[in-house]
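# step 3/5: fold
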Amino acid sequence: MESGFESLSPSQPAPRGPLRHRPRPPHRRAVDGLASGLRLALRRLSREPGLTALAFLVVTLGIALATAVFSVLNVLVLRPLPYHDPARLVVVEEWHRTQGFSGSSYGNYLDWSRDVAAFSSTALLAVSEPVQLAQLDGQDLSDGPQEVALGRVTASFFPMLGVPPALGRWLSPAEEVTGRDGAVVLSYLSWQRWFGQRPDVLGRTVLLDGRRRVVVGVMPRGFHFNYGSIVAAFAPFTLEATARDARRHATFARLADGGTLEAARAQLATVASRLAREYPATNGSWTYRLAPLSQAADMADPSTVRNAQLAFVAALLVLGVCGANLASLLLARVLPRSRELAIRVALGASRLQAVRAVVAESVLLSVLGAAAALPLAYTMRRAAARLVPAYLDLPSLMMIDGRSVVFAVALGLLLGAVGAILPALRATAVMPSEILKDEAPSAGGRRSRLLDVLVAGEVAAAATLLVLCGLLLRSLTHLQTMPLGYRTEDLLTMRLVLPEERRLAAVAAFYDGLTSRVERLPGVISAGVGECPPLSGDYNGLPVLRDGREQPADPRLLRALVHAVTPGYFAALGISLRRGRLLGPYDTAQSEPVAVVSESLARREWAGGDPIGRALRVDGGRRTVAGIVSDVRHRGPLTGRLDDDVYLPQAQAPGRRAFVVVHGHNAGRLAPAVRRAVRELDPTIVVSQARTMAQALADSTAESRARTEWAVGFSVLGLVLAVTGLSASTAAWVSRRARELAVRQALGAGRRQIVGLVISRTLRVACAGATAGLAAAVVGSRMLTSVLYGVDPLDGPSYAAAAATALVAALLTGGVPAFRAARVEPAAALRRC
C-alpha cells in the first residue's frame, strides 16, 4: 500500500503538517511568553486570595496617596500657567528702599509701557477688595449678597495672556472710560456658579459693587488668575490721573521676541533712574524688580509650596514602605517554593524562566493597583487641597491629567520591580544542589535575613513618620492652646461695607445706632464695631511713635496696628483695661484726639514709664494716650508674637469698612438677627463674612490642621503596613523553624520559652528598624522647622512616643504567631515536618 507521500509528484510541495517545523518569530515568542506568564500569575494569585487582596490594597493605597499629593504639586509648581507661552510673562514690582514691596502706580506703568522696548505688551490689574454680588438678571440672590473678587484690568490684559474667551469677547480699549465701563468678563467658575453654564449668558447683567454690568465674555475652562485671590470677574480699568504715589495696582508684561529678562531689567533700571530724577518726591526712594510670573509670591506662596513638598516627601516615604511590604509579602510567599524553583533549574530551566512567575505576579499586582489608584486619587484631591490656602480654590484646578497618569503608572512599575527583583534574586541565589540535598535551613537563613532587612526598613519608615506626626501634633496643640488676649467663644463678627457716598460723620452715627440696636437683641451681652478685629485679615499698619522720638531710618521698625473702634468693642472682645480709661461716648469728633495703646506698645515707646496723658504720633497726627489695655494677637497664633496696637475712637477716625463684633449666648445663631438690624437701619449696606471667632480661629490654623491630619494618616498607614510586614515575616520565620521549635518542646522547653523566643526575634527586628527610624527623623525633622510652633525639632517626648508606639505594635504583632506556635503539639509538628 502506497503512502500519500509516494503518490505525490516531485514537483508538488510537501504538505504542511506536524512533520514540518516552522520556527516562530522572536517577537511572537516574547508576546506568547508574556501572555503565558500573566495567565500563570493570575492562576497563582487566585489560589491565595487573602495575600493577593492584601498586596493589592497596599499597592493601591500607596500609589493613590502619592498621586493625590502629586496633583497638588502639579498645579502649584509643575503644570505651566494656563496662558500662551507663560515663560515670557513677567511681573513688574516697585520696591521702596526701606519699606519694601508695594504695588505699581498708573503713571509709572505708562512710562514702562512706552520706554521698555523688551516688553511686547503690558497690562495693569487692580484687584479690589471683595465686592458685593447682589443680583443676577435683576433678581436678588436667594442666599443674599455674596462677596467676590473683581479684577479691574486694562484692555491689553487678555491679549497679553494670549487666552481667547470661550464665549463672547475680551474687554476693549473703548471701555476704559468712566461711564462706558459697564462690561464684565466672567471666569469659567463664575459662569458655572452664577448662570449654570447657560450658553445664552452674553448680554445678561450682574449687579457688582453697586453697578449693573453686562456680561460680554466668558473665559475658558482651566483659565484662572490668582493674585492675592481667585479673580471671579474682570471689569475694565478706567483711566485715572497719573498720580505716581498711588501704588495700588499690579503690572504685568510679556517679553518681546528676542527679548531677555536681563535686557528688560537693564532697560527698566534706566527708566527708574530717569523717573527718580524727574520726580524725586514720589520716585526718589523707589526701585523696580522684574520677576517671572510663575515666581510671583501671590501666584504660588513659598509656604504653600513647602506644605505640598513636605506632604509629598511623606507620601514617598509611605510608598517606600508599600514597596518593602510588597517585597516582603512576595518573599515570604516565595521561600516555601525554593525546592520547586530548584527542581526547575535542575531540569534545565534558566533562572529567569524559574522566577518569571514571581516577576509577573509582582508587576501584575502593581499595574492593577496603579489603575485602581487613579480614581481613588481623584476622590482624595479635596483632602489634598486642604494643604494650601482656601482662596486658591485648588479643587477646581486639580485634575488627574496625563502627567498624573504617567506618574501613577511609573510608580506602579517601580513598585512591581522592587517587589519582584529582591524575591527573585534571593529565590535563585542558592545552588539547586544545596536545596535538593536538604540543606535548605542554611539557605533559608540567608534568605530570612533579607526578609528581616526589608521588615526593619518598614519599621524604620513608620518610626520616622511617627516622629514627624508627633512633632506636628504637639505644634498644633500649642497653637490651639496659645493665649490670644481675646475671647474665642460666644463671639460673632460680621463685615460691613458702607456706600462710598456716605459722609464720614454719618458713618460714625450709623455705627453708634447699630451697636445700640444690636445690644438690645435677645441673647446679646455686648456689641461694638471695629475696623480690623482679630483674625479678620484687615490689618492697618501705620507708623506710630511717642511725641519727640526721632523717626528711624526704617519706618517699618516703629509701625503698629491701628484700630478705629466704638466704646463697646473692648467689652465684646474681652480686652482688659490695665491702666487709665477705655474709649467712651464722650470721645467725639469735637473732643481732644485720644488713643488707647496695648501693653507691648507702651513698653516699646516708654520702656516702663507711665504713658497716660503723654502724646503719641499716629501716622503723623498727635494724640493723647488715655489708657493701656492687654496685649492681643490680632494675626492669630501663627505669628508667634504679640502685636503693638493703637485703638482710636471710631467717631474721630470713621471708616466705611468695619466689622460688628457681638458677644452673646449661642453667638452663631445671632447672625440673622444682626443682619436684620443692619438692614432695618440701611438696606444698602453690604453684610458679609458672618462667622464666629471660633470659626475664624479654626480657619487661621486650617493649613496646620490639614498638615497634621495628613501626617496622622501617613503615620497610621505606615505603621499598619509595617505591622503587616512584621507579621508576615514572623509567621514565615515560625513556619521555617517549626521543626526546631518542636524539638525544643520535645526536649522540655515550656510554652513561655517558645513565646519568648518568637517575641524576642520580632522585637530584635523592630528595635533595629526603630533605631534607624529615629536616626532618620533627627535629620528629617529639620524640614519641619518652618512649620513648627513652640516645639523643637528634637522634642524628646515626640521621639519617645514614636519609639514606644513602634515597639508596642511589634510586641502585639509578635504575640499572635508566638502563642500559636506554643500551642502546637511537638509530635504533630514533627510529623508534618
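# step 4/5: annotate
The radius of gyration is 36 Å.
# step 5/5: archive (pending)
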